[in-house]
Amino acid sequence: MPTLPGGGAFRTPNPTLAAGRADEAAIAVVRHFGHRMQGLPFTLLGAVRRPSPGWTGPWHYWWQAHFLDCLVDAGRRELRREQHYDGGSGPSAGRLAARLLRTVRWRNGFRFTNSYFDDMAWLALASQRLDGLAADADKPRFRNRAASRRLLAQLELAHTPDLGGGLFWSTDRDFKNTPATAPAALYLARSGDTGQAARLLDWLDAQLYEPERRLYLDGVRLVSGKPVLVPDIYTYNQGPVLAALLAVGRDADLQRAAELVHGIAAGLVQQPEVTEEEGRKLVLRTHGAGDGGLFTGILARYLAVAARSDKLPGDVRVLAARMVADTAAGFWAGRAIENHRSWEVLVFPSDPAAAAAGKPQPGAGVELSTQLQAWMTLEAAATVAG
Hints:
Layout: H1 15-33, E1 34-35, E2 45-46, E3 49-50, H2 61-81, H3 93-107, H4 117-136, H5 145-158, E4 175-177, H6 178-191, H7 194-208, E5 209-210, E6 215-216, E7 219-223, E8 226-230, H8 235-248, H9 251-267, E9 274-275, E10 279-280, H10 292-307, H11 314-333, E11 336-340, E12 343-347, E13 366-367, H12 368-385
Antiparallel strand pairs: 1-2, 3-13, 4-7, 5-6, 7-8, 9-10, 11-12
């Protein structure tokens, strides 16, 4: 049985159990948060919160991008098993994903673009994955190449020589950061433009990599025309950098990817609990609700990519897989059951380390971001399990 640095054994999750938990998370989020836009047929959006503030509530574009990514995950599993994620005969996850992408455009003023380049990078990645799913499933009508073309054009405009390279975060053009640059690099690498992706990675390494902690800082802001480092460290920033390093795949990139996995394990896990039966637990740190409610799910998604990559040493892959599996187990242990109209729905905690003691309170408001985070992590665990 593989062991972890610092002790403890890694037990590979049961693949049937992991896939079943991912299905349950998909059912919970789609049923609880999925709704038609103003009741229009063949539309889908994720409600930002339940109970919902309605049409006048906030519009979180990038939350919808991750909803799309999760639906693609479920669609991949459907394709492998030839069975819908919910076991029924209604719309497949892939069909729902296509509806969601189309509805995002309508809700966003009949355009895919907005003022934030990181938002657009996330939607570009998700729409790219939907196109791949459509191709593999031989469902060309699910493809939306217009989304990728328009979003790529915006990302290219954000990549300038200012501050040595990298992408601006918004159209204000006063902040270049990891949240915009890393997913753009991953999108470009997956599109085959590894040269441009490599230049973005080189900028990240030169400007924002912290060698002592082996993690990436948040960004560089222009203040009165001068660069000022923003040294915050967030879980989600590490994820797309890790995947981009693996996708570009230069020797230095792969070495840095291995360092990054170790940095995450050393600096971004919660206080490990040690039990005689299970050994050391590596549960990832989380960042509360709101936008932060997505952060750790994003990291788990890309740690799963590392866990499956034959470009990394075995011990690094085991370490990445363990962080995903332990965090997913925490989300599952902390789930609660709520009655919603005539049916029950699972609700997941925002903190996977809280487990049973931190179960969501019945009737309390729940945000889409935290539920997507748990769903992402459970999907990641399913891919690690096989």
